[in-house]
Automatic annotation (TrEMBL):
Protein name according to UniProt: Glutaredoxin
Family membership: Belongs to the glutaredoxin family. CC-type subfamily.
Domain Glutaredoxin, first and last residues per copy: 36-98
Native species: Musa troglodytarum (fe'i banana)
One GO cellular component term: cytoplasm
Organism phylogeny: Eukaryota, Viridiplantae, Streptophyta, Embryophyta, Tracheophyta
Annotated signal peptide: none
InterPro entries, sorted: GlrX-like_pln_2, Glutaredoxin, Thioredoxin-like_sf
Length: 125
């Protein structure tokens, strides 16, 4: 399942159906459909933290909850091929793979995350 944070002001998430396929190209296509895409697992605390980080920054992110998608294993395998492993969350900004939580937090700390988000048109405020 995928959802958009378009209604984040009200503290709600708008759910939409994830893509049917899960090949590498389809994951990349999903990643290119929104300025920020987060592949997540609903019970993962790090996934929750990164969603809150982006929401707190005023970013409208599309989130693919792998554990709520019937094809999660295929999506997970495609992400593993991109990353060389399967840690979540996995973030794409502007259609480009940023990586996992450690890369996003490093970009946030060194100040480059905001410029990536601006270039992608990710801010909804």
């Amino acid at each position: 399942m995928q959802y958009h944070a378009a209604a984040a002001e009200a503290g709600t998430w708008e759910y939409v159906t994830a893509a049917q396929g899960a090949t590498m190209e389809e994951v990349e296509q999903l990643a290119a459909e929104s300025a920020v895409v987060i592949f997540s697992v609903s019970t993962c605390c790090m996934c929750h933290a990164v969603k809150r980080l982006f929401w707190g920054m005023g970013v409208s992110a599309a989130v693919v909850e792998l554990d709520e998608d019937p094809r999660w294993e295929e999506i997970d395998r495609a992400l593993a091929r991109l990353l060389g492993g399967t840690p979540v969350p996995v973030m794409f900004i502007g259609g480009k793979l940023v990586g996992t939580m450690d890369r996003v937090m490093a970009a946030h700390i060194d100040g480059t995350l905001v410029s990536l988000l601006k270039e992608a048109g990710a801010f909804w405020l």
